[in-house]
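Is this the right way to post C-alpha cells for a design question? Let me know if I should format differently. Anyway, here goes:
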C-alpha cells in the first residue's frame, strides 16, 4: 500500500473515532499514535488530513449535505460520512493532490470500509462537490 493511501486510511480511522467518541482531536491523535507506529511521512500526512478536515467541518458538512439529495448527514453511515468529509477536505484544500486522485482514493476507502453501495454514493457526492466547488485538474 502506498504511503499516502495508508495515511488516508489512518486519517479515516481517526475521523471515525472523533465522530463517535466526542472527545478532543488531541486525545484522538495521541491515543491513535500510541497504538500505531508508521513512518514519519505517513503520520505527518495523516495528521494534516485529520486536522484540516476537523478544522473545516463547519463548511464541509453543509456542503456535503447540499449535495446529498434525500440524505441527512446525521443519518448517513458513520464511515461514509467521514470518507465524504475527508474527500471533500482534500478536494477543496489540498492543492498538491489532483481532484481525480482525491475522488479515487475516497472511492477506494469506501470499497474497503463501507458497504456494497458506498463507492457509488461517495463518488456521486464528491463528483458533484468537485464540479460545483472544486479546483481544476490542470496545474
Amino acid at each position: 500500500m502506498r504511503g499516502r493511501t495508508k495515511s488516508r486510511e489512518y486519517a479515516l480511522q481517526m475521523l471515525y473515532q472523533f465522530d463517535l467518541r466526542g472527545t478532543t482531536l488531541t486525545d484522538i491523535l495521541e491515543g491513535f499514535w500510541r497504538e500505531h507506529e508508521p513512518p514519519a511521512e505517513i503520520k505527518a500526512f495523516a495528521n494534516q488530513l485529520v486536522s484540516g478536515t476537523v478544522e473545516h467541518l463547519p463548511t464541509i458538512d453543509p456542503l456535503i449535505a447540499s449535495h446529498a439529495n434525500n440524505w441527512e448527514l446525521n443519518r448517513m453511515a458513520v464511515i461514509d460520512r467521514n470518507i465524504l468529509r475527508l474527500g471533500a477536505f482534500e478536494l477543496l484544500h489540498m492543492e498538491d493532490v489532483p481532484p481525480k486522485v482525491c475522488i479515487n482514493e475516497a472511492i477506494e476507502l469506501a470499497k474497503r470500509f463501507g458497504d456494497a453501495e458506498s463507492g457509488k454514493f461517495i463518488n456521486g457526492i464528491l463528483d458533484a462537490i468537485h464540479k460545483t466547488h472544486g479546483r481544476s485538474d490542470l496545474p
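Format looks fine. Someone answered above. Worth noting: The chain has a mean pLDDT of 93. The first helix runs from residue 3 to 21.
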